[in-house]
Amino acid sequence: MRSWHINGERLLDDLNHLSSFGARPEGGIDRPAFSPACSEASRWLAERMREASLGARIDAAGNVIGRLGPDDGSAILIGSHIDTVPGGGPLDGSLGVIAGLECLRSLSESGANLDRAVEVIAFSDEEGAYLSMLGSRAMTGTLTETEVDTAHGRKGDRLADAMATAGFDIRKLHQAERTRQSMSNYLELHIEQGPVLESRGLDVGIVDSIIGIDVSEYVLHGQARHAGTTPMGERRDAGRAAAEAIVHAFDDLDLRAVPEARITFGDIEIKPGASNVVPGHARILSEIRAIRIQDMRQIRNGVDSAFDSAAARHTVRLEKRYLSGDVPSVMAPDMIDLIGQICIDLDHKFMVMPSGASHDASNFASLVPSGMIFVASRGGVSHHPDEYSEPKSLVTGTNVLFETVRRLLARSNGGSR
Ligand SMILES: [Zn+2]
Description:
The protein is of the alpha/beta class. It folds into 2 domains: about 10-210 and about 330-410, Zn peptidases (Aminopeptidase, 3-Layer(aba) Sandwich); about 210-325, Alpha-Beta Plaits (2-Layer Sandwich), CATH 3.30.70.360. It is built from 12 helices and 15 strands. The chain has helices at about 10-20, 35-50, 95-110, 135-140, 145-150, 160-165, 195-200, 240-255, 295-315, 335-345, 360-365, 390-410, and strands spanning about 55-60, 65-70, 75-80, 115-125, 185-190, 205-210, 210-220, 225, 260-270, 275-280, 280-290, 315-325, 330, 350-355, 370-375. The strands form 3 sheets. Strands 1, 2, 3, 4, 5, 6, 13, 14 and 15 form a 9-stranded mixed β-sheet that branches. β3, α3 (about 95-110) and β4 form a beta-alpha-beta unit. The longest helix has 22 residues, at about 390-410. The termini are close together. The chain binds zinc ion. The site of zinc ion has 6 residues, from loops.
C-alpha cells in the first residue's frame, strides 16, 4: 500500500484560523455553543468543507458535517467539536475537527475511489454550555426529553432560546438522530489534556477506555442556631455533617484502591453562611469518575453511605439527587490493534491509555467500532489559554488518523487498493 501524507501546513493554517473565532484580547478563546462566535466558526468550517467539495450541511442539532464518497451507505465518521469552555485553548476539539477535514481533503486529492463514505463532523455543545455533548448525543439518540426541556446555561438562559437565537428549532432536535446502519466506525483525534505522553516522550496515545462521570447533589437540612448558646451535643449542624461525609467518602475511595477513579467535591454551599451561626443547610455536588461501570456504582454507593451515616449521626435530613453523567465506554480492541500497527509501521512511539476526560467518542463506542488517538499536551494543560501541543505532534496525530481511515477503507474495498 502506497503511503500518503496529509498536508501539515494546511492543517496548521486552518487550526490557526479557527482559533481567531471568539479569541479574547487577553488570550484564550470564548466560543460556547450557539454563541455568535461559535456560529461564525461553524459557517467558516462549512465553507472550508464546500471549497473541498465535501457537501457541507448543518443538522438540526447544529452539528457541521462534511462527506466524501458515496451518498448512500454507511460512513466512517471522524468527529470532535469546535465549541470551547470560557477562556479555552486552540486545540481541545478543534484539532480533531480540522484533522478530520484535512484527512478528507487529502483522501480526495489522493484520487482514491471510495466504496464507502468518510465524514467529518463538528459536534455541537460538547463542552456543555447548555447540555454536555448535545450534538453527539442527538446523533446517537441518547437525549431524554426532560434533560432537553430543562437544559440551561450558567446564567439560567434556556437551551431552547439559545438554539432559536442561533437559528435552530429545539423541537426538531430529534432529526439529528442517525441509524446505526449509516455509520461503520467512529474515529477521534484529540489532545491528551494530561501530562502522560509528554512525560514519557511518546508521540501517540491510543485510547482503550473513556472515563465515565457521575454528578450528584447532596442536600443536608439541619437547624440554624446561635453558635455560642447551642451546646455541641444539641446541634443539628449541616456543615459538620457535610465535612464528615466528605472526609469519609475520600477514605472509602482510598480503601477501594482504584487508581484511575476520582472523586471531587468542587461545589459546596453552606447556609446561612455566617461565622456565628450553626449551618442549617449544606449543598454539596459530588463528581465521580471511573473507567469501569462497576467501580462507578461502588464508589457512588460509598459516597451515598458516607452522607447517610453523617446525616444520621448529626440528625440532619438528607436529600440525594443524581444530576448528570456519562457512562464509561470502551474503544474497540480491533481499532486499538489497527492504530497500534499503524504507529509501528510509521515509526511512532505510542502507548495504550485510558482517557480521564470525556469525549464525543463515548457516545459512538457502544454503537460502532470506535477508536481514539491522543497527542501530547505541553504540561498537560487544557481548558486554558496556555493549551499547546508541538506542531509536529499535531501533524503526526493527523497522519495516524489518516492512515487509520485509509486502512479501514482498504478493508471495505476488499484490500484491492
Ligand atoms: Zn474536547
